[in-house]
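Note to self: keep these together.
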Amino acid sequence: MSSVDVQPIPGRVGQKVRNELIFSNTGGGHAAAPRYKLNVVLREQDIQQLVQVTGNAQGQVYQLQATYTLVDTATGKVRHKGKAISRAPYSRFQEVFANVRARYNAEDRAAETISESIKSQIAAYLATT
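Structure:
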């Protein structure tokens, strides 16, 4: 796994996913010479839940979907493709700062789950080849 070079992923959540993948692949140490490149595309979505009679949503679910490709750096061929999905619920409040922090927390939890799923799928693929 340390020979997998995780390509930059745009956005705050993308950076979180990338950092989680890099750390889990290398354990914080130096990476091996890259044998594979990992390209990840994220799609974010908010799903409203717990709608009150007034029409206000008290709860929301942050959904993060990832599509990834593992590319062999020597040949440029795609060796493995996959998808991962994560959902993280959070509550909405009247205070703006509380809403922002709740959303960031949900994003961070979803990013950690997505990175674990991607890592597990790639590790399983590499173990069988």
